[in-house]
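Justification of computing resources. Each target in the renewal requires a structure prediction run like the one illustrated here; the chain below, 172 residues long, is used simply to show the kind of job we budget for.
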Amino acid sequence: MDKGSIANRFFLLLGLALLQVLFLNRICLFGYVTPLFYIWMIIRFDSSMKRYGILLWAFFLGLLIDIFSGTPGLNAASATLLAMLQPSIVKLFVPLDRHDVLVPCSASMGGRPFAGYLLLMTVLHHTVYFILRSIPLGDWTVLVLKIVFSTLLTFVLMLVTESVTKSSGYKR
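Resulting structure tokens:
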């Protein structure tokens, strides 16, 4: 990984953390719906990254959000788990060949596989996050409503972001 790539990832980490902490954490539609958009960075890690690199970036992103949100390790734990699963989940949706480096996006995966990948990753993250947040488990209906509707809002925000950015998904 070159210095430019590290700097780009660092600024993306800071930007997403600021967006999440300053704006998105303040959204609470109907008492249930909060978008957790910061997982966009974890979802977009390319296939050339080493697993420990993905885990470290995700952990520090989650930790930064935890520090400024007052959530003791919830984001760090759920982001790290998502990062641990990300390389395997990408392989479920796209068989990788040895010559191309895949950046998960609609351009490299196709629209439907990317949407499926995005939805699965979002469901996994939000399920872990909201279960950890609601320990001890109380009202299951409220928990399910938070998971479902927050997942849908985050999913829609990421689809809109994907359609606006439309970047190339392959590197040579």
